Amino acid sequence: MLSGVPSPRSRRQQKRFGRRRAAQRRNYLRQACLRLALKKIGPASAPKTSRKRGKYRERVVRDYDQSAWAHFLRSPDLANPDSRAGKLFRRRFRLPYPLFSKILAELEEHPNFAPAMDALRRPSAPLSLKVLAALRVLGRGECFDSCAELSGLSETTCRTFYHRFTQWMASKYDVWCRAPTTTSEIDRVLRQYSLVGFPGCVGSVDCCHVKWERCPMTENSTHSGKEGYPTLSYEAVVDHSGRLLSSTVGYPGAW
Q: What is the DSSP string of the chain?
């Protein structure tokens, strides 16, 4: 082929390059017209876009006082265990309201659970709602998302506080769960059982089977008993007033 005469391949490349340049010019003109139109409209109504998507998130302002549990805590007769609100509180959170108030008072005195401020000097989430969320998970096996819906807290706050709360409760085992050690305490327990016709009794024993939902297949036979599904059995001893005297670790449910 003579020099200076373009080959068919080079002509196709030139056409392709020309179409690409024409598309680039159209895009540039389209963007220029859009910028000009937005400048005439004004910056107030122009949509603001950010190239770093996901970096800046809208901050959710939570009103904890308007949550369902906050309204429930403001019930006037909640402290009375015999009232309708007191019975409802015990059924929902598996303990009476006076005991909840005692736990809340001890947590408020603990330095790791004291109310704090964030960087903008705003108070943190109420401690009472966090404790209710932890009690609901322990008492009913509720998921953290449901607790967040009822308390107004975030799911992350409920999950984080739950683990901190259970660790604190485990550290209080020797304080709240212990057998009578003094003569007066033993006489008190004996007197309670004597009044109901059981002289000499110092405690009542029973076992509680807790379902093990993610039991490995290799442990299924040793943990499946009369319930028909894998469980962990906990043996507890209480006095006649319901005070916990001792508790064992979880044993296989088939034992």
A: --TTSPPHHHHHHHHHHHHHHHHHHHHHHHHHHHHHHHHHH-TTTSPP--SSTTTS-PPP---GGGSHHHHHHT-TTTT-TTSHHHHHHHHHHSS-HHHHHHHHHHHHHSTTSS--B-TTS-B---HHHHHHHHHHHHHH---HHHHHHHHS--HHHHHHHHHHHHHHHHHTHHHHS----SHHHHHHHHHHHHHTT-TT---EEEEEEEE-TT--GGGHHHHB-TTSSBEEEEEEEE-TT--EEEEPPPEETT-
